[in-house]
Design brief:
The chain has a six-stranded parallel β-sheet, sandwiched between helices. About 40% of the residues lie in helices and about 15% in strands.
């Protein structure tokens, strides 16, 4: 079984299933596709459909028969959660991926995008990280279980392409932030964690904020709305077995990031660093030349994006998870 596929504009009347449509990534994809004129978007909350349940997942696909699938559903968390709950991150993500990808294959879904994470790459991969760095070295131990799950998803997509000829693709975003982020004390990523910490310190008049680690690791940050536009761009312009990096191609230190956050929230106190806490991978910058070579560029600057998230966090609209 093979498919003849030529990248080009997607049919705006096609039924598009966005798995994980209420999360940070999925909600941005929903906004993007809605704005782009897709009139038949499908989503289910985790309470309506547990994607870890194989029978329920297959039943959903049999009923809905989506034309396009974007797999953005995942168990995600920051360095603390990944370090202390590796079994959950491995098991939940493997089950979600296997169920969705197998059900999509059984229903002969013609176009699918699997979303992973830049943590799939080796801890000491040459910088900036190219797509062919995958599986060339050991992973960062603090999130290796999550990374292995995502690598398995990439390989399943590649296997479907080889065995069945379906034009499925994978994209690996860098660190994401934006509306609907997770601001919980135990499960958030670095940027929302910093925003909450500095905003609470500002409101309380606290003289000192203490952050995890040394502040020296370098990270790349992409606004989730830019990520969503990149995903649509890839679905319309790319068809190949290799995962595609999605990012901005620039990074900053966590210490510099903390300074931007402090400025945007208006915190005037002192910042200290707890070097007994994990730093994680020393640097993680993606080579995004494949994506930019397809004609895509980000549009939201980091300070502008952080200011928007701070404003949304202060309003605490529906979707901000505390």
């Amino acid at each position: 079984m093979t498919e003849t596929f030529a990248p080009g504009p997607l049919d705006r009347s096609a039924k598009v299933y966005i798995a994980g449509h209420r999360g940070l990534v999925g909600s941005a994809l929903w906004r993007c596709f809605d704005d782009a004129g897709f009139g038949n978007l499908v989503g289910r909350t985790s309470s309506e459909l547990d994607l870890r349940d194989r029978d329920a997942t297959f039943g959903f696909f049999d009923e809905e028969q989506p034309d396009i699938v974007i797999l953005a559903a995942a168990k995600v968390g920051g360095i603390g959660a990944n370090s202390t709950e590796p079994v959950d991150f491995l098991s939940d993500n493997l089950r979600i991926q296997l169920n969705v990808l197998d059900a999509a294959l059984a229903n002969h879904v013609g176009r699918l995008l699997f979303l992973g994470s830049s943590c799939i790459y080796p801890k000491f991969a040459p910088q900036p990280i190219t797509e062919d760095s995958l599986l060339t070295g050991p992973l960062e131990p603090s999130n290796d279980a999550y990374a292995i799950a995502k690598i398995s998803g990439i390989l399943q997509v590649q296997s479907v392409r080889r065995q069945y000829g379906l034009p499925w693709i994978s994209a690996m975003p860098t660190n994401l932030y934006g509306p609907g982020d997770n601001f919980s004390r135990t499960g958030s990523h670095v940027l929302p964690a910093l925003i909450r910490r500095y905003e609470e310190a500002r409101a309380a008049g606290a003289p000192v904020v203490t952050n995890w680690g040394s502040g020296s690791p370098r990270r790349e940050f992409l606004h989730v709305d830019d990520m969503a536009s990149a995903c649509l761009h890839l679905l319309e312009h790319y068809d190949g077995p290799q995962q595609v990096n999605v990012g901005v191609g620039e990074d900053i230190t966590i210490r510099e990031l903390a300074g931007i956050v402090a400025q945007e929230v208006g915190y005037e106190g002192r910042t200290e660093w707890d070097t007994t806490k994990l730093d994680g991978t020393p640097r993680k910058l993606l080579d995004v030349s494949t994506l930019t070579g397809l004609g895509w560029q980000p549009t939201i600057g980091l300070s502008e994006g952080i200011a928007g998230v701070v404003s949304g966090y202060r309003r605490q609209p529906v979707g901000v998870r505390l």
